[in-house]
Amino acid sequence: MAKLQNTASGNPIADNQNSVTAGVRGPVLLQDYQLLEKLAFQNRERIPERTVHANGSGAYGELEITEDISKYTKASLFQKGEKTKLFLRFSTVAGEAGAADAERDVRGFAIKFYTKEGNWDLVGNNTPTFFIRDGIKFPDFIHTQKRDPRTHLRCNNAAWDFWTLNPETLHQVTILMSDRGIPASYRHMHGFGSHTYSLINANGERFWVKFHFKTKQGIKNLTNEEAAKVIAKDRESNQRDLYNSIDKGDFPKWDFKIQIMTEEQANNCKFNPFDLTKTWPHADYPLIPVGVMTLNKNPENYFNEVEQAAFSPSNIVPGISWSPDRMLQARIFSYPDAQRYRIGVHYQQLKVNQPIVEVNNYYVGGFMNNGSYKQEPKAYYEPNSNGGPVGDSKYLEPDLAIGDVAARWDHRVDEDYYSNPRALYVILPEDEKKRMYKNIAESMEGVCEKIIERALGHFEKIDPSYAAGVKAAIAECKAKCSCGC
């Protein structure tokens, strides 16, 4: 027997097929509260989409720690044998909600760990680096990836203008234009915390850390031509692949590994270890196995669990902390601020965002406060004499030495823009290099000659063959073009 249908307030519904009208042909009456409620809810079915990472997919899983790394961290979820439930959201960076999955773009790799000490969010990508190293440039960068406000079209000229005027982007651009720029599926790509974070052990010692998730399914990518065929048939190819694989019990897995750098090593490091545009050489800072991450459960309601999932690097737990990474510092503010605007001030009370621990605080009122926070009636301020929650100094982090002169320090004081992309370029197979030249040439359609020449100048400094290959591919594209450009 079917369940009784109700209004949002629980009132039984007698007829959900017909409005209340004054006779068979008469007008609708304002008293039809079921009609009004139904239309009002439809008007509010959407929330503002994410400014970036709008198009995404998600799944639940767990992280199992198989190795002992307690000498680096006291975090409960990182102790050997520990299993922690998690929610992972994959996404594309530039595309709007509804954009095709198989587009050339960086993929988001955001994980919410429901630990015994509160939620820890690791907000990363499928690349170990990013385009910029200072958060003050993030809005400018994203504007180049979105639509021209005049034409409302994506603009290759803006993207390449920004990239060539900000050469710290070259490492990420090279990754994006390589085969890994279009993963065949979310299951067949690596994930990275990307930023430098810190681990703190039981002795109060701090270690700088990079987080890596290496796919156990193997790397698979698409060429531009293969991606075009996929998009023509299925714009939700990655979403479908992820959902179907989990649904049939083929649970995707990633090996979880870390790189460690001591504070002394960081002080003597030849490059800035907190620069998001650079990687740490594995020869100097080898990957350390930690555990395995598995995705094993699909969401039951996409809107509730994927669209309303809210991640922020501001969510940390004892034993894990941040670093002086400028981009990370900016995201600590911008991410929770975006969620408060997009979903509401109490977005943490939504089920997908709720921690598994009891929450006690003094946050009162506001939209969406469902009362899941524990508050004593006589202790709604602090300090108080009524037994309200208090802080505990045992959770203080060890001191962090910082610079003593506050200024707008030039983040381009390190002008080594070319060694990292060069190190990547030289290990690419020759056939992948040829595809990368072609990808770059195709992405430069509509880009003015001045910007193309600027780009070639940068490629020349990475490696002369890089510039020569792109230049030849551009000439070939122009020869085939029928538009007369």
Gist of the model:
This is catalase. 29% of the residues lie in helices and 15% in strands. With 485 residues, it is an alpha+beta fold.
Provide an overview of this structure.
- By secondary structure, the protein is α+β, with helices and mostly antiparallel strands.
- The chain has helices at 33-43, 138-145, 156-165, 170-177, 224-233, 237-247, 263-267, 302-307, 326-342, 419-427, 430-443, 449-462, 464-480; strands spanning 56-65, 83-92, 107-115, 118-125, 191-192, 197-200, 206-215, 253-262, 288-297, 320-321.
- Strands 1, 2, 3, 4, 5, 6, 7, 8, 9 and 10 form a 10-stranded antiparallel sheet that branches.
- The longest helix has 17 residues, at 326-342.
- It is globular and about 80 Å long.
The number of E-state strands comes to 10
CATH third-level topology of the largest domain: Catalase HpII,  Chain A, domain 1
Mean pLDDT: 93
SSE-based structural type? alpha+beta
* Overall geometry: globular
Termini separation (Å)?
67 Å
Q: What fraction of the residues are assigned to beta strands by DSSP? A: 15-25%
Radius of gyration: 25 Å
In the residues, how many domains can be counted?
A: 2
- What CATH first level of the largest domain would be assigned? Mainly Beta
CATH architecture assignment of the largest domain: Beta Barrel
- Amount of helix: 25-40%
Write down the secondary-structure element order.
HEEEEHHHEEEHHEHEHEHHHHH
